[in-house]
Every structure is written in C-alpha cells, then in structure tokens.
Amino acid sequence: MNSRQRRGVLLLIVSIVCALGAFAGVLSVISDVKSKVGPEVTAYQVKDEIKPYTQLNPGQFEKIKMPKRWLSENAITHIGDIKDKIAVTTLKAGSLLQSDMIVDQPALQPGQQEVAIMIDAATGVAGQITPGSTVNVYATFAGQRQGDPAQSKIIVTNAKVLQVGQIKALDPAGSDKNQPTDTVPITFALSTLDAQRITYAESFAQRVRLALVAPGGDTTVPDKDRTYELLKDK
User: Fold this and answer.
1) Nearest-angstrom CA–CA distance, 93 and 87
2) Entry pTM
3) Which residue(s) pair with 134 in the sheet?
4) Taking the CA of residue 109 as centre, how many other CA atoms within 13 Å lie in the half-sphere pointing to its CB?
5) Domain boundaries, the chain
6) pLDDT digits over 123-138, tens only?
7) What is the pLDDT of residue 163?
8) Are the C-beta atoms of 188 and 160 separated by less than 8 Å?
9) Does the domain spanning 40-104 belong to CATH 3.90.1210.10?
10) What is the C-alpha to C-alpha distance for residues 105 and 234, in angstroms, rounded to an integer?
C-alpha cells in the first residue's frame, strides 16, 4: 500500500468516525427532547365549527396525539365523554375539545313535555340563560276592562330550559314600538298545566320575561306574591 492509498484509508476512517459522532449527537438530541416533552396522549380537536347547543357525536372530532405535559387538565381524552352532551358555546374548527365547552343535554322527566315560545331577546334572555337553566316566567297583562289596572304575574316557576335557539330579528314595519325587535325561541320542559300557562302568556300577555333562578336558592313563591299591581304597592 503506497502513501496515497494510506491517506485515502485514513480519510475514510476519519469520515466514518465523524459520521458516527454526528449520529450519536442526533440520538442524544432526540433523547433529550423526548425526556423534556414526555409521553404522548390522545386528545380530540374540532373538525368543523359546531354551533351552540348542538348535540355532539364522535364524527365531529378528530383524534390527535400530543405530549401529556402540554395538555390542559380539562382536555377530553376519551371520546365517550361526549355522550349525551351538547356544546355550550361555538366550537371553532381546530380547537382542542375540553370539558368546559360542553354540558349535559337536558332531558324530559316523566309527565313533562317540550314547549317552545318566542321571548324578547333583550329583556327575556340577555345572554345569561342556557340549556339546563331554571327560570321563573313573568307576564304583564293589561286590565280586562277600561280602567282596570295592569298586572304583572308569575305564570310559571322553576321552568327547566331545554334549548335556546338563534336570535331572530322581527320586521320593524310589522310591529309597534312597544313590541320586541329581536326574539329568540326558548324550549322548556313543563307539565301540562304549566305548558298551558306559558302558551297563554305568549299569546295574550303584553310582554313575557324570564328570571334566572340561582342554583340552590329558595324558589318558592307564595300565592299572594304571584300577582303585582302598582296601586297596591305600599
């Protein structure tokens, strides 16, 4: 082996050693990254935008993998957790599914029925009433005869809200100034008698309002307090 061949072999050996060193360095970096990132877990992201109060199903979500340490505590990692759930707000495409985005779908109890009425969006809902809320329903009536005082009545107490629809703008030319300009359909779970009361109020009351009942509060309303007249207020 002449000197030129020896130099070639030496360069080849040096190249191999350098390549091995570089490979070892890459492995070291990968190992370091894995140690910092930690194990991966399953999560789910929204495929397409989901409207509020929409019933959820697995086809609306895409399964992904991401490091556990980067996942929030309320992220959903089991798709079965969305069973019988609805979206509580708009779920944007690509957003990570989390437990605070969904709530249980309200269900009817024995003897109840679904009843939907239109409510003034500004005074009746005000963005605070959502599916699962409990409300009292108030209605104001004009006097039956000329000279009779107007009255405000509590028509239904502890009405369970099943669904809140989309706000609908009314034709301003078709309603007077005392009527609402924006309404929203509210679906309730009611007994037969309460369903009759609330549909009567929607048809004949001057205005129907909802009052949100605080969770755990005393919702009993005595009969003497269910009707209000201004002249009797002392």
Assistant:
1) 13
2) 0.54
3) 160
4) 9
5) 40-104, 113-232
6) 666 667 888 888 899 9
7) 82
8) yes
9) yes
10) 44
Residue with tokens 């003034």: 120
Q: Which amino acid is at 168?
A: K
All residue ranges of the chain with pLDDT < 50 are none
**Distance between CA atoms of residues 98 and 109, nearest Å:** 28
pLDDT at position 93, please?
Answer: 92
Which residues contact residue 194 at a Cβ distance below 8 angstroms, ignoring those fewer than 6 apart?
156, 159, 188
State the pLDDT at residue 47.
93
* Other CB atoms within 10 A of residue 61 CB: 21
Nearest to 77 by CA among 39, 104, 33: 39
Q: Which of 62, 35, 31, 32 is nearest to 46 (CA)?
A: 62
Which residue has tokens 């191999």?
A: 16
Angle at the Cα of 105 from the Cα atoms of 101 and 109, rounded to 5 degrees: 155
